[in-house]
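ugh ok fine here u go
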Amino acid sequence: MPWPGRGHINPMMNLCKRLVLRDPNLHVTFVVTEEWLGLIGSDPKPDRIQFATLPNLIPSELGRANDFLGFIDAVHTRLEEPFERLLDRLNSPSPTVIIADTNVLWAVSVGTRRNIPVASLWTTSATILSLFLQSDLLQTHGHFPIEPSGSKEDEIVDYIPGLSPTRLGDLPQISHGFTHQAFNRFKPCFDQLSKAKYLLFPSVYELEPKAIDFFKSKFGFPVYSTGPLIPFDEVNNRSEPDYIKWLELQPKSSVLYISQGSFLSVSEAQMEEIVEGVRESRVRFIWVARGGESKLKEALEGSQGLVVSWCDQLRVLCHESVGGFWTHCGYNSTMEGIYSGKPMLTFPLFWDQSLNAKMIVDEWRIGMRIRSKKNAEVLIKRDEIKGLVKRFMDGESEEGKEMRRRVCDLSEICRRAVAKSGSSHVNIDAFIEDISKIV
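structure:
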């Protein structure tokens, strides 16, 4: 039972594919709304994954960004009853285990009532969950609530188990505004975690050992890192869409791949500065513009780039012509950037993205900041963007060489994790063994 959103459905589906491909006795019922079945129902998947649907009782995917808080409330209040009715119909055989997104508030209690173990899948970093689960420590240390862009944002938070020392300004602004309201709605989900039977992460243990070890010590049930939960098996697709043909014509490591994600975006004024900054940098680029493709094409006419409405992101990132990734720092995108061995230019917008950007730039040292919390409300001008893009794409500078060397090392760590005997490979086998013992 994934949370109904692209950034949650994708890792859940990738986990389920790994499970059924590893064990021929496993069968998965993948639960989505009728709307989401229309969006993903034709995607390739193993035969032992079947879809089941819930009625469209929540706001449409097309408009959820307009009232995301209302969307959260709808998922939390309207889908539990139809999910229970679905479980009543799944009786030959009955479900052995429920794998549910941590953000689905009622999933653990439904499993408990029915004596079905629940494995909670948290679809972003273990590090951010350690913060969310222990947010009361911010209050204890005088760091909650904090005024946005206040005098304390450079103070270091070094007292939260599982979280490396971090500037207060690099943490999500959970004490104010929209993020505060979203956090309050999701907090009961975090409180339910202790009643689950398993906790699964889409991360790689070697990338977040401190946070994952914290959860292993905190909970009296198995905690498994199973990532990266990205579609790496599909990278060698033989099809040649126009954007791949275009990439084939570009010099090695010369193209900047630009994607601001599929949910939230930036102001028109900021987008105009980004467009002009990228254009004036004269760097080659491929830019994914969901919804605004024609407008962006017009604005970038005559530049050295390609604008597309959609592309196979991981396949593009793994192409040798691509030398860098401009990203909003959603967790799936972060993992795809690392797996592909591409340094990242970070432009976080919401929720976990600022902390993901901090890990990219400060901990893993595989990227640069365009936007940080310190200037989140300030318009970043085209000249600054132009200079950063040129500096970031300079693979011959010492800074550029070191960044690319480090991200290649982390890419190798990710690839080893999912190979036979790798940490994530072993953890998925252990999880399968656990659930196989359930009678």
